[in-house]
Structures are given as C-alpha cells and as structure tokens.
Amino acid sequence: MATVFTPSAIRRLEALFGVSATTGPSSCRFEISSSDGHGGATRRLALELYGDIRIGRKRGNLVSVYTEAAHLQLHFCSGVVLSEDLGEATFVGEYRGKLSGLIVEKTAGCTLFANVDREILSGDFTQLSPEVMLSGVALSLTEPVLESEKKAPRRRRTGARRSKAAARP
C-alpha cells in the first residue's frame, strides 16, 4: 500500500488545521487545540500519521489520534478527504465493503465511524434511522477517494514468481 501522506498532503493538512506538523523519518504529528473563546475549556488533540509502515505482516498507513480521554487508531488508511468548508479531514480505510472513517476537526474534535457498510453511502439517506444516517452522510464525502482507489492498478509483487521464459538461461 502506497503512502497517502505525501509532502503535498501534509502541507494541505497544515493549511486546514492552521498548525505546522512536526515530522520524523516515518511520521508526522499535528498538535491541534481550540478554545470556545468564552473562558471555557480548551480542547486538545494530537494527530499522528505514519506512512507505509509495517502493521503486522503487511505494510500500510496508520492514523493515531490522542485526546485527553481517548486514543483512536485507523489501520490501513487508504485516503484522506479535506473539507475546508467543514474544517475537517476525513481519513478512510476500506476492507471487504466495510468502511472506517476517522474525522479530525480543526477545532480539536474527533469522530470515529467503524465497520460501516459501503452501500449506505450512495443510498437514500431518508430511509435510514437517524443513528445510522450520520455515518452515511459523513463518510459519503470519501466516495471519490474510494472510487479512484478501485480504478488504480494493483501493484505487482516483485520477486514472487518468475515466468518460465524468464527462468531460462
């Protein structure tokens, strides 16, 4: 799986969140905070992105979010959709027709939707219960990323097999 956290993507995330990323050899970190402006509590979260790292026996992209009360991870992230209008980034991964999306807001909010049936993204939202509708609407923004991933050719494994012609001297 190729990294989705390219230097260009990192710059776009920096612009969206209004903070600079701290980068390491295989990761970058955003520290995002927001206050309500009325003397209330300040929300904080840290977003860490790891591109094309080892996850078990495979390689993939990992998204981690740390808050004061939670730690969330999305393994095998295959794309990210930025919405300047909503002030959020949606990180998405798909496995066998099920989606997981981790949404990070520039106001230091975070939402996780996991194991969502892909079919509800393009269905009639009015036919869904309110509890289910929210995940469908939120993750429907990721459809262009998911479609481009389907159309992209799969990488061939190198060195796995040699043809008979290649094996001859």
Number of domains: 1
Are there runs of 5+ residues with pLDDT below 50, and where?
154-169
Strand order within the widest sheet?
1-2-3-4-5
User: What is the percentage of strand-forming residues?
Assistant: 35-45%
Describe the biggest sheet?
A: 5 strands, antiparallel
Secondary structural class: alpha+beta
**Shape descriptor:** globular
| Separation, N- and C-terminal Cα atoms | 33 Å
Q: What is the tally of beta strands?
A: 9
Radius of gyration: 19 Å
Percentage of helical residues?
10-25%
Mean pLDDT: 81
Give the H and E element order.
HEEEEEEEEEHHH
In DSSP terms, counting alpha (H) and pi (I) runs of 4 or more, how many helices?
4
Account of the 3D structure:
The chain is α+β, with helices and mostly antiparallel strands. It has one domain (7-150). 21% of the residues lie in helices and 41% in strands. The radius of gyration is 19 Å and the shape is globular. Residues 154-169 have low confidence and may be disordered.
Keywords:
169 residues, alpha+beta, 5-stranded antiparallel beta sheet, 9 strands, 41% strand, globular, disordered C terminus
